Amino acid sequence: MSDIPEPEEFRAEARRWLAGTAERRAARQDWGSGDDSVAVFENWTETEERAHTDRIRDWERTRYDQGWGALDWPPEYGGRELPSYYEQLYRTEEAAFDVPRRTEVFPVTQQLVAPAIRIWGTDEQKARWLRPMLRTDELACQLFSETEAGSDLAAVRTRAVREGDGWRLRGHKVWTSGARVATWGVAVCRTDPDVPKHAGITVFLVRMDAPGVTVRPIRQMTGGSSFNEVYLDDVFVPDADRLGPVGQGWRVTLTVLAAERLDSGSLGLDNADRALHLARRLPRPLTGGERQQAADLFVRTLVQRLIGLRVTAAVAAGREPGAEASVGKLHATATMRATTDLVQQLLGPRLAADTGEWGTFAWTEHLLGAPGYRIAGGSDEIQRTILAERVLGLPKEPKGAVS
Amino acid sequence: MNRLDVDPAVLLESEERRQLRTVLRDLFAESCGPEEVRKQVESARGHDQALWARLAGEIGVHGLALPEEYGGGGYTFAELAVALEEAGRVLCPAPLLSTVVLAGHALLGSGDRRACERWLPGIASGAVTATVAGFVQAADVTAERGPDGWVLRGEADFVPDGEGADLLLVVARAPDGERLFACEPVPPHGTHGSTCDRTARRVLDPTRRQALVRFRGTPAEPVGEPGQVSGIVDAVLGAGRVALAAEHVGGSAHALDATLEYVSQRTQFGRAIGSFQAVKHRLADLLVELEGARSASAYASACLAEWTPELPVAASAAAVACTGAYRLATTEYVQLHGGIGFTWEHPAHLYVRRARADEALFGTADDHRLRLAGLLGLTGTSG
């Protein structure tokens, strides 16, 4: 289309708008002072989480209202119908400005749930949900995993039973981030226990303030809480809030999961950059082995960025990205581990005991948080199986005794 | 400095490069399969001269990255990288790396128009094979002015394709400092009366020959000006590293493809071994490494094509990513083929040999990590 600006023109336009709307991020001269958090998962009380969410939401609304949100959505949803990689172009520019860092519930709402509603929702649902979600007036969390359904998500046991013009939901969901601030939960439920497990699933959007919904924080190994368990005790959901056909919920779920896998390309890069900066600024000369270890982490970050750019380039050229689009998450979790390893070597005892020095003990948040990403959003093992079967075309694992 | 400002489009294979790749893959399939490679390396010259001529003449591979004024095609290194990747995929023993990349860039880097006019057209047409000495491994060669012009004395070891090359570009100590010299030792094989003895070394990788070259008053001509050597050496090593990275991507991709094919048809315990998770996950990890290597190689080729200031970092990063991937790919190539992969007859060991021998050429992955740490200041402070 003729009204699509050239990428360079678009970036310049974005820079101009950002300059008039946000503060430029201070250059890295503040090493040694200011915020030294490298937390992978935030550790906030409910009050703090709400305050942060409000701040992010203010910025997202500003973007949306001034034509810089929902870039790849059609005008009827407040977007500009630009190719999807323009969002990445915009983010490259935004990174130079001091805007609130989005917590997980934001990309979940805007990049995972809203597109799934666009694909699977009725016209009424699209009209009701899409604009508020893209503007983040409504926030959605994922009610997916259960204690007995982790990697094998299709084994969910949360039941949804028909009742009048709606459904009665009963079950227990775990590892939901943003449940305390979300207004909607996307719940994967079993509606038919008598058919093969993938066929008996239906997806619902549940009001998080509905009677019977209870949110309890999970304390993770960092000591803080970023996730929740959500109890659904006979929660009533009108049929109008069912997403996709009855029994087709597995396909709806896969739509969300696929988007999640592709959204992990830049994971871990900020902290890796910070660890490299530590390698530059450490007040002693690095040994040969430490230099090699730091350089290796640099190569990992460079390669991770290049893989992301290849995906962007393929999409921009109208090609289907190849294998490069699927390796991102495994690469990212390895980057996070390598970051921990380097910092461990550089800080030595100051990572084990808090001396109060800036930018030292704070790294324990990374060390303890990084393992979470190897499990969340499809564990490393699940990622490998997906790569082997779907990208490399290797034969599927024979079904186990229970299926 | 961790920001990466590169046009994503340069990382994407253009339609032109894709076509070049198809043409080369067909040609190599027809004339450089595993059987042919073994025959070629046992021949006197160590490669197939008919194939060499077709690559240079029919397809124009040799001249791809050379300027048109010297008989080249006027494309960029990014196109040559496609050819190197495909050559690396089949372990083509032709001396492309030594002739086109190393000697070609030594001549171009010297800025010596007369030398370029004299030799580059021959390199582009495939008429001349060439190599460099004293660039990769330090050599002990001196140059002195004799009654009939300059002569070289001393020796250079580990010279790639040193036994057969028509033209040698040698870094030698002249009275006014280090300088680049060109010599054409005739006859080529150290016959009686020759002033240049060339002894083929027994090598780990038979598809890439090396030689000890002894200069005993060998006539030579200076190339470029005195004081230029370090710049020329940098250019040659930079080009060599990026070229090798492209070859490694090709070799790694072959190892992955061949292994996938094997584990999909080999059955044990009543199922294809590729259906076992222990096998699958190893190949998934290899794919992650390979895609990383492919990305780093594409970036380094783009930097070399434009001689951007990022080239030194990009070249070493590609060396780290690509030697790492090639090591893993060749290890898995043998391991996942089981017993058959350990036999002499199976080509897997040729790839192991190539991967390991290449690491000695322009530095191991650890050498490049140290170099990167220096370039990027990842060294801590003095306190």
How would you describe this protein?
The complex is a heterodimer of chains A (403) and B (383). The radius of gyration of chain A is 22 Å and the shape is globular. Chain A is of the alpha+beta class and 403 residues long. Chain A is built from twelve helices and eight strands. In chain A, the strands form two sheets. Chain A has a four-stranded mixed beta sheet. A four-stranded antiparallel beta sheet of chain A has the order 2-3-7-6, with no helix packed on it. With 383 residues, chain B is of the alpha+beta class. The two termini of chain B are 22 Å apart. The chains are: A alpha+beta (403), B alpha+beta (383). Chains A and B meet through helix 7, helix 8, helix 9 and helix 12 of A and helix 7, strand 10, helix 8, helix 9 and helix 12 of B.
Task: Offer a concise description of the structure.
The complex is a heterodimer of chains A (403) and B (383). With 403 residues, chain A is an alpha+beta fold. Chain A contains 12 helices and 8 strands.
